[in-house]
Structure formats: C-alpha cells, structure tokens
Design brief:
By secondary structure, this protein is α/β, with parallel strands linked by helices. Helix content is 49%, strand content 18%. The structure holds adenosine-5'-triphosphate (ATP) and magnesium ion.
C-alpha cells in the first residue's frame, strides 16, 4: 500500500532514447552499460530493447526472455508481464529479432507502445531505450516521445552525417519545450579527439538547425568492451575500472 502511494505520487522517470542513424556505433552496448551505471547509482531502471525488428540486448547479455515486445504488441502479454529482472540490478523489457510486425511499427500501434512506455516510466527513475539504426518510423516515433534523446556518433564521416540527420529530424518532430537532444561520442581515440568530433557535429547543428545540442559524454574506444560483449557479461561487472566503464559512469552521473 505504501509502495502504491509512493509510486502514484512521484513524477514519472525520465525516458532516455539512444539513437545514431548509422548502425554499429555502439548504441546497444551503451544502452546496457548506461542502464547498469544508473542502477549502480541507486536508480530504478528499465532497459527497453527498442530496436524494433533487430533486437539484441538479449544477445549481448546472454539472456533468453520468455516474453518480449512482439508478444506485447501482438496482445498476448502486457508490457508489465514481459519485463524481466536482470541480475545486475535493473529490469529489461526485451525485444525480438526478425519480427516484420515490429520492423514496420507505426501509427496507432506505435502510439500504444509509447503509451506503455509512458506508463512504465511511472515505476522507474529512468527508462533507457535502445533504438535501431536508421531513421524509420519506429526510431522517429520512439525518439520524439523520449524526454532525452542521446545521439551516438563516432568520428567517421558517415556516422557524423547520419547523426546529423537524426538530430535534424528530431528537431522537426519534437514539440518545442518537450525534452531535449544531446550528443554522445563513442569510440573516441582520446577525450580530446572526442571533443573534436562533438564540436564538428555541434557546429553543423548550430549552422543549419539553429540549435546546439550539448555534449552528454565522450566514451573512449576500449578493447574491454568487445571482451565483455563476447562473454555476454555487462562491462561494469567484467571490467569495472576500464576507460570505457569510467566514461559511461561519468555520463550516467552527468545525466
Ligand atoms: N567504446 C567502445 N570501444 C570498443 N568497441 C566498442 C565500443 N563501443 C562499441 N564497441 C563495439 O562496437 C560493436 C557494435 O556495438 P553495438 O552492437 O552496441 O552497436 P549498435 O549501434 O547497437 O549496432 P546496430 O546499429 O547494429 O544495432 C560491438 O562489437 C562493440 O564491441
Ligand atoms: Mg544495436
């Protein structure tokens, strides 16, 4: 009863979406590690695998969910039923790979999913959403509803171009005063190089969009990340004091 009252009277948790445009820049790994870092900081965290159609949070963590977002969208489960409690101290709403119904999600079905996430945010301090690559309707619809969009970029020209496209579309889709977008540089050779990458992207946004997204964090390239993924173990558990772990912990604190 006390728990119900507490939940009912606190503001909903922040929905943090992670997108990039270009694939393979580290969104899923960052979403998992950020969720873990926020949980280690004492927050109640839900990690949502929002890569509709090509989910792989479960693969990176080596878990086999019994229910997932495809069964929620299909009406077989409620979102609450599909949530599993992960041993590292946060909850996961898993996705499903290879679902055509999810890959083309739009309109009312996408609206219902966003309504589920809004409702779930009432039970958590943060909902971290791993979005797919590209700028399809699912990515745009989930990103625009988030309170904070983190756009992940690397120093590759294709990544910068695609990250700019995501920021541009988000700028048009997000109602004024509703949430914010920020940049995270991943795979940075050093903090200084990461800052350089951030400034290149921020300059393009300032010039062509009239907005300068802030830098939420710089995450250095670190071979420990690959080792943790290969072993299907969270980085903060396997290599808690490596450079990339420190960078994501700093990002979590800055949020
Ligand atoms: N900071 C880093 N240092 C070294 N390797 C990294 C780092 N971040 C991510 N990687 C590597 O990049 C690869 C892609 O990561 P991940 O699957 O998280 O990317 P993604 O953006 O989610 O890809 P997709 O667009 O296919 O969903 C992984 O093999 C991971 O090991
Ligand atoms: Mg991914």
């Amino acid at each position: 009863m006390t728990q119900t009252l507490t939940t009912a009277h606190r503001p909903p948790g922040r929905r943090i979406a992670i997108a990039s445009g270009k694939g393979g820049v580290g969104k899923t790994w960052l979403a998992i590690t950020l969720a873990h870092a926020l949980a280690r900081g004492g927050q109640r965290v839900l990690l949502f695998d929002g890569d509709l159609g090509l989910a792989n949070v479960d693969t990176q963590l080596g878990i086999t969910p019994k229910a997932d977002i495809a069964s929620v969208v299909g009406g077989a489960h409620t979102a609450e039923d599909a949530i599993l409690s992960y041993r590292a101290g946060f909850d996961i709403l898993p996705g499903r790979s290879g679902s055509t119904a999810l890959a083309g999600l739009e309109g009312a079905a996408l609206g219902a999913l966003n309504a589920d996430l809004r409702r779930l945010a009432g039970r958590y301090d943060s909902v971290v959403m791993d979005l797919g690559a590209g700028v399809g309707s699912g990515v745009r619809g989930l990103a625009a509803a988030a309170d904070l969009l983190l756009v992940v970029a690397t120093d590759e020209p294709t990544s910068l171009t695609d990250a700019y496209a995501v920021l541009k579309l988000d700028c048009r889709a997000r109602p004024p005063g509703h949430g914010d977008a920020a940049i995270v540089v991943n795979h940075a050779a050093s903090k200084t190089e990461g800052q350089r990458t951030y400034h290149a992207l921020a300059r393009a946004c300032a010039t062509f969009l009239g907005r300068t997204p802030h830098c939420a964090g710089i995450v250095r390239r670190d071979e420990h990340v690959k080792d943790a993924i290969r072993r299907q173990t969270p980085l903060l558990e396997r290599h808690p004091s490596c450079a990339a772990a420190a960078d994501v912990e700093a990002l979590a604190r800055a949020l």
